[in-house]
User: What shape does this take?
Amino acid sequence: MAAPKVIIRADGNSTIGLGHVMRMSALASAIDAAGAQVSLAYKTCPPQILERFAKSNCRTAKIEESASLEQELSILADAQKIVLDGYHFDAAYQDKLLAQTKARLLIVDDTAHLDLYKCDLLLNQNAFISESVYSGKTSAKLLLGHKFVLLRDEFRKIEPKGRKGEPGQKLLISMGGSDSENVTAKVIEAAATTKYEFAVILGSASPNRQLVEAQLRNTPKGRLIVSPENMASIFADHDLLVSAGGTTVWEAAYLGLPNIVIITADNQSGMERFAERGACINLGPHKDVTVEQISQIINHLFEDVAKRQTLANIATSLVDGLGASRVAAALLELNGP
Assistant: This one.
């Protein structure tokens, strides 16, 4: 029997961010491991991210920006399973897609922003999300919550260590793959007022690299890491993280890296529930957070080893690293077409 053919449709760049394609690279790896043939169809995606898909035996197909919707959908038409991850795949898109294919459909969502989700599976990996947010919007099987967090293989290959009261004082800053508003600059300013050395991670799509480099030249305690090959090993080598509220939070949670979260986009509001359970510190929207507040919480957590240990232990208890495998299994178990 031929392996089922799965096509993932997602995009990523400095404007829309890299979260969609990064988490889809994790799902692609899990689909490949489950024995299916997987491809990524995209209009925009940085070369470094495409390399991640290639390492998972995931083929890639570029859709030209000028392509009509009909031309785009023709690329997806022969799939048996289709995954959509992006806010532009609205009900009209779903209607036209389903009119051209008999494929079973998984939609990845964060905000329940659509009136209708016409799919077989609906994934929202925000922590402690309620089924009620999709009431009347879909008849799909719901895959909800941190049980279904999509973690990349590089993180799952590192054993979570929970920090166990380690007194280390190495700070890491990672405000997302694009960080178009350069929230990184505010966090660097805060970190520079502390006594701790720190590293700053920028993604390959960051439009602010020159600004950050200039800022760090005046901050001897800070160093820059651009698009690292293995993010997980860098996380494992640090003791405290300041991050945006996207996929990075789940990655840190799995490894037991205590995390200070700053919300940089509307689709990150689900972090509030994760923080309420004591799994991270949520400082709220970046426009409302001051440099002084950031520096104060960095100092506080470095001084309070027990608090860091508690954050790490709760976080690792909630994210077990098996979410991508669970989602892949649910997708491949769908009958048909």
